[in-house]
C-alpha cells in the first residue's frame, strides 16, 4: 500500500511540475511578445532580457519559438559604429496570423483583414439598404464578402485566426443580437445563421466568431491605433444610428449587461421627434445621417454611390448654406449629449468616428461650444474633440484588431496550432 501511494505521489508531483513548466512557458511567451508589440523600436534579445528580468537564454529560446511560429521576425540591424556585430531587432511578423473584422450596418456591409502588426491588408465594402432585408439574407451576403476577404488573405500567405462582427445594436451572451432598431432586428442568433460558413481557422484561445456592438469595436480600434494616446475617451460613431464606445483606463466599459454606449437614444429634446426605438427626441433624430441629409435638402435616396458623409463634406467645403446649417444644428444636438456624458464620467477626450470623422471640421465647433456651456469643469479643464484616426473604417478594423490582440496576449494557442 505504501509503495502504491509513493508511486501516486511521484506521478502527481511530475504532473504538477509539467503543468508549472507549461504555465511558465505560456507566461514567458506572452511577456516577450507583448514587449516586442509595445516597443517603439525593434528590441534586441538582450534588451528584452534587461527589460523583463528574464535570462538571456530564456529570451533566446522564447524568441526562437515565436519566430518558428511566424509571430516574430528579425529586423535588419541598424548601422553600428563601435566594435562587434550590431544586434538584430525583433518585430511582429506580417505573414502569420491575421484577424477578420466584419460589419453589418444599415446601409452597407464591410470586411477587413488586419495582420499581427496592425496593418490593414484588405478592406471591402458593399453598399445596400439592408432594412428591407431579412437577417438571414443580410448575413449570407456578409458571409460572401468575408469569403472574398479570406481568399485575399490566403493569397498574401496569412491565416485568419478569428473573426469579430460589428452590429449596430444590443448584443447579448453568445452573440445574440437582442435589438438593432435601425435594422429591424430582434433576438437574432447571428452565430447560428453564420454556422455554415467558415470564417477563420480554429485557434486555441481565440473564438472563431465574436459579435459585438459596432461602437465598442470602433472604440477598441481607436485604442489600438493610438497606443500612446489617451487611455480614457468617448468614441462616437455617426451613421444612420449613433453609438458610443466608452474607454476607461485602457479598458472598454460595457456596463452591467454589456449594453453601454447607446448615446443615439439619449433624449436631447424629451418632447421632440418620435424615434424608431419608441422614444421621443433621441439624438439620432437630430444628428443621425438621415436627419442631417434631410436638413440639408439631400434625401438619402437621391445620393450618388459615394458615401453620405463624403457628399456632405464636399458641400460644406463648398460653402453650401443648407449643409452648413444642418451640420451646425447636428453638432449642437451632439454637443448636448456629449456634455452629459463628460459631466458624468469626467472624460477629457471625445473622438468623432464613423461618418462623423470626415465631418469633424464642421461638427467640432458646435460640439465644443455646447461642452463649454454645459460641462462644469470646461473652463479650467478643456475637453479635446477630434476625428478618429481610423475614420469610417474603425468598427471593422477594431474588430479585426481585437482578434490579433488576443494572439499577442496569449500566443501559446497559435503556436500549438502551428506546431
Automatic annotation (TrEMBL):
Pfam families: ROK. Gene3D superfamilies: 3.30.420.40, Winged helix-like DNA-binding domain superfamily/Winged helix DNA-binding domain. InterPro entries: ATPase_NBD, ROK, WH-like_DNA-bd_sf, WH_DNA-bd_sf. PANTHER family: BIFUNCTIONAL UDP-N-ACETYLGLUCOSAMINE 2-EPIMERASE_N-ACETYLMANNOSAMINE KINASE, ROK (REPRESSOR, ORF, KINASE) FAMILY. Belongs to the ROK (NagC/XylR) family. This is ROK family protein.
Amino acid at each position: 500500500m505504501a509503495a502504491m501511494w509513493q508511486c501516486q505521489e511521484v506521478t502527481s508531483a511530475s504532473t504538477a511540475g509539467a503543468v508549472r513548466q507549461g504555465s511558465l512557458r505560456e507566461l514567458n511567451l506572452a511577456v516577450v511578445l507583448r514587449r516586442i508589440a509595445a516597443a517603439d523600436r525593434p528590441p534586441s534579445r538582450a534588451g528584452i532580457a534587461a527589460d523583463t528580468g528574464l535570462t538571456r537564454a530564456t529570451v533566446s529560446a522564447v524568441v526562437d519559438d515565436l519566430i518558428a511560429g511566424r509571430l516574430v521576425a528579425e529586423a535588419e540591424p541598424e548601422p553600428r559604429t563601435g566594435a562587434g556585430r550590431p544586434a538584430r531587432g525583433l518585430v511582429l511578423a506580417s505573414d502569420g496570423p491575421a484577424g477578420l473584422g466584419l460589419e453589418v450596418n444599415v446601409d452597407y456591409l464591410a470586411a477587413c483583414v488586419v495582420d499581427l502588426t496592425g496593418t490593414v491588408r484588405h478592406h471591402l465594402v458593399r453598399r445596400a439598404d439592408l432594412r428591407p432585408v431579412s437577417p438571414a439574407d443580410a448575413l449570407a451576403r456578409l458571409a460572401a464578402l468575408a469569403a472574398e476577404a479570406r481568399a485575399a488573405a490566403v493569397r498574401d500567405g496569412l491565416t485568419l485566426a478569428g473573426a469579430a462582427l460589428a452590429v449596430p445594436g444590443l448584443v447579448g451572451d453568445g452573440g445574440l443580437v437582442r435589438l438593432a432598431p435601425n435594422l429591424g432586428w430582434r433576438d437574432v442568433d447571428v452565430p447560428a445563421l453564420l454556422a455554415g460558413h467558415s470564417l477563420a481557422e480554429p485557434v486555441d484561445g481565440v473564438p472563431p466568431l465574436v459579435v459585438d456592438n459596432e461602437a465598442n469595436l470602433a472604440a477598441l480600434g481607436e485604442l489600438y491605433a493610438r497606443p500612446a494616446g489617451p487611455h480614457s475617451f468617448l468614441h462616437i460613431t455617426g451613421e444612420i444610428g449613433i453609438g458610443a464606445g466608452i474607454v476607461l483606463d485602457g479598458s472598454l466599459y460595457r456596463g452591467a449587461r454589456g449594453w453601454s454606449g447607446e448615446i443615439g437614444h439619449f433624449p436631447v429634446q424629451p418632447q421632440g421627434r418620435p424615434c424608431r426605438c419608441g422614444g421621443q427626441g433621441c439624438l439620432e433624430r437630430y444628428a443621425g445621417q438621415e436627419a442631417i441629409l434631410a436638413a440639408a435638402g439631400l434625401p438619402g435616396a437621391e445620393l450618388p454611390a459615394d458615401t453620405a458623409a463624403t457628399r456632405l463634406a464636399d458641400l460644406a467645403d463648398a460653402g453650401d448654406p443648407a449643409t452648413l446649417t444642418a451640420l451646425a444644428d447636428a453638432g449642437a444636438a451632439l454637443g448636448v449629449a456629449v456634455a452629459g456624458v463628460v459631466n458624468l464620467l469626467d472624460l477629457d477626450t471625445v473622438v468623432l468616428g464613423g461618418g462623423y470623422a470626415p465631418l469633424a471640421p464642421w461638427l467640432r465647433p458646435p460640439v465644443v461650444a455646447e461642452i463649454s456651456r454645459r460641462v462644469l469643469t470646461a473652463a479650467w479643464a478643456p475637453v479635446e474633440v477630434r476625428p478618429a484616426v481610423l475614420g469610417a473604417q474603425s468598427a471593422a478594423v477594431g474588430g479585426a484588431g481585437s482578434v490579433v490582440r488576443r494572439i499577442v496576449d496569449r500566443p501559446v494557442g497559435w503556436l500549438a496550432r502551428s506546431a
